[in-house]
Amino acid sequence: MIRLYGGEDAYSFAFDGQWGYLDHALSSSSMTSQVVGSAEYHINSDEPSVLDYNTNFKNANQIDILFNADEFRTSDHDPVLVGMALDASAAEVTAEVSGTSKAGCPDDCFDGSATVTLSSEAGATIFYSINEGGFVEYSSPFVINTVGANTVSFYAVDGAGNVGEPTTITVKVVDFPSTSLLDAFNRANGRLGSNWLFSTQPDQYRIVNNAVTSDKGGPLAWRTIYGANQEAYFTLSGINPNGTFHALMLKARGANASQSAILVSYDAVGQQILVEALVPGTGFVVFPSIPASLENGSVLGARAFG
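The structure assignment produced for this chain is given below.
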């Protein structure tokens, strides 16, 4: 620091007519950037040695009259002063989440897994935690494959030792749907076709421009017997804003699903998902609604187990 700010003529010590400095202020690379100045405090080397702390060759009277209660000649070396403007701001951390986006999901929704990449300024150390677990040091991008809304928290400790406040993001991972699409309706306008059962008349459902248009509606099922675990979904290419029953059906039994069924529907007016179960001997049982706001292109789906 002395040479950096004082140049070649800097001094902090005088001996036998020679001047120079033996006193140093050293800093690390991260600290040097926070130093704003450095200089010798010439309270000693410029003063005559007779005034110093040595009592050699001085009688009692000289010791008394040559002493003064100030900072001068308290040593034969000058102290080094360093001015600093310490960096008190913590390093910021940037998070990038990548993966395969899921159709019908928001931008932060990923299919099967998502990769999180964290970055900060040079020299900073990043720490992160997943789903409120313990913080660990970040070394490379990591993968999240837990289905659901995962929380990732992170912060950085910079080269000056400043510790940042944790930031938390949500990473949504889904594995729905896991089954392949049964029918894309990519054929001529008209009836749905022989693979469909129950309400298949043209005034109930029909194909128009590679999508199904619902008129009178009614129960509609694919001509296959499924097991205990079922999954159903469809894309809402156009939502009727006044419609209260955009529905899909699972666990259908009996003609026109008259014996039992599970219905999952979207109410565009109330902006909610409704779940109902037709229970033999009881009738329809309605479960608490789920707030939701779907838009054209959203996927409505459900799973039933057991």
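Interim note for the steering committee: The longest strand covers residues 148-157. The helical segments are 2-6, 29-32, 60-65.
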